[in-house]
């Protein structure tokens, strides 16, 4: 009688070891805007959906051997079991090298890291979601979450802004989100000839909202820091509590585990206490120049 073949060792869940870099393969690349593409990354041989689980707002460290490592947010559907999705803009060495890769190529990945959007705390009330430029990437994961749990949220406004119409990310999905009763508003800094929408900064649209119950409303924002500061201030003027305002911050990150201190902001390490942080916890530090 032949003995059964030995069971292969189970793959270690990614979150169990923050230093473990796993090899992932590019399964798809979608061009989103000039210099911006979305990559779907899969683990070879791992078909366990749990391997891909994350909380909307979390990020992975993408590693290009011989080049470096960068923090990149999850931009996809958290219920998807066929890989993580990242939307990346060419900024420097890592992102430029990534942009040169194609479907089937491999890279390294550590994660997921950080505190994502507080999806439980956001439930049960109205929600204003504000996204600026590439800030739409981690916001999209939150929108998927809201769509999957739509009856747990009240009125949901999505206010997205970008420099130009072509820089507005994921526009192909806006109609689907509207079908899920998400009140989508778009604005651009500079219009093109065919643009018939709003022109101006996102805060103009926030200021115009008529909130039925400001105390029963939460605001979340991701985008350039100056935009988030003004968006949070607009929310406060509308009557939204600072304890119900959440911002996703970005700083230079190296270890992603709160050890190296590169991303420290006051008492918070953005990599492990954030990137999503409550406005009242970070407000004093946001207005200190170069912190
Ligand atoms: C939590 C988090 C989530 C992110 N999510 C995304 C995402 O979804 N998509 C995306 O495209 N990007 C995202 N980023 C930004 C991304 O990590 C950076 O743009 C990263 O620097 C790109 O790596 P790179 O090697 O290509 O560029 P780098 O070589 O790091 O250079 C990028 C630019 O940043 C400047 N820079 C680099 N380090 C510093 C520093 N210490 N101080 C000041 N300026 C500096 C450089 O001069 C250059 O202009 C995220 C960052 C964080 C912290």
What does this protein look like?
The protein is 20% helix and 30% strand. The chain is an alpha/beta fold. The chain has two domains: 14-113, Translation factors (Elongation Factor Tu (Ef-tu), domain 3), CATH 2.40.30; 119-248, Nucleotide-binding domain of ferredoxin-NADP reductase (FNR) module (Rossmann fold), CATH 3.40.50. The chain has a seven-stranded mixed sheet with strand order 10-9-8-7-11-12-15, sandwiched between helices. Helix 5 runs parallel beside helix 6 (225-238). The longest helix has 14 residues, at 225-238. Bound molecules: flavin-adenine dinucleotide. Flavin-adenine dinucleotide is lined by residues 59, 68, 70-73, 86-89, 91-96, 134, 137, 250-253, 275.
Provide a brief overview of the structure.
The protein is α/β, with parallel strands linked by helices.
Describe the secondary-structure layout.
Elements: E1 22-33, E2 36-43, E3 59-64, E4 68-73, E5 84-89, H1 93-99, E6 106-113, H2 119-122, E7 126-132, H3 136-148, E8 156-162, H4 174-179, E9 182-188, E10 198-199, H5 202-208, E11 217-222, H6 225-238, E12 245-248, E13 264-265, E14 268-269, E15 276-278, H7 279-286
Parallel strand pairs: 7-8, 7-11, 8-9, 9-10, 11-12
Antiparallel strand pairs: 1-2, 1-6, 2-5, 3-4, 3-6, 12-15, 13-14
Residues 59, 68, 70-73, 86-89, 91-96, 134, 137, 250-253, 275 line the site of flavin-adenine dinucleotide (FAD).
């Amino acid at each position: 009688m032949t003995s059964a073949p030995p069971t292969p060792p189970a793959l270690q869940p990614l979150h169990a070891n923050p230093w473990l870099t796993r090899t992932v393969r590019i399964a798809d690349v979608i061009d989103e805007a000039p210099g911006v593409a979305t990559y779907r990354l899969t683990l070879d041989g791992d078909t366990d959906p749990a391997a891909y689980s994350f909380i909307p707002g979390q990020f992975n460290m993408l590693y290009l051997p011989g080049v470096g490592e960068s923090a990149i947010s999850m931009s996809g559907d958290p219920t998807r079991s066929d890989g993580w999705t990242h939307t990346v803009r060419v900024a420097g060495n890592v992102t430029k090298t990534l942009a040169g890769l194609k479907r089937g190529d491999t890279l390294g990945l550590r994660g997921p890291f950080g505190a994502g959007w507080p999806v439980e705390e956001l439930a049960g009330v109205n929600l204003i979601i504000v996204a600026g430029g590439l800030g739409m990437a981690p916001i999209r994961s939150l929108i998927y979450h809201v769509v999957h749990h739509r009856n747990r949220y009240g009125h949901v406004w999505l206010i997205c802004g970008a420099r130009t119409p072509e820089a507005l990310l994921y526009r192909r999905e806006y109609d689907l989100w509207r079908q899920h009763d998400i009140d989508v508003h778009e604005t651009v800094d500079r219009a093109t000839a065919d643009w018939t929408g709003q022109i101006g900064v996102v805060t103009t649209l926030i200021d115009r909202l008529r909130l039925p119950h400001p105390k029963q409303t939460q605001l979340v924002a991701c985008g350039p820091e100056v935009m988030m500061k003004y968006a949070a201030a607009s929310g406060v003027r509308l009557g939204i509590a600072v304890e119900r305002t959440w911002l996703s911050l970005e700083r230079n990150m190296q270890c992603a585990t709160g050890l190296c201190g590169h991303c420290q902001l006051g008492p918070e390490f953005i990599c492990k206490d954030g990137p999503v942080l409550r406005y009242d916890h970070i407000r004093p530090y946001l207005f200190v120049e170069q912190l």
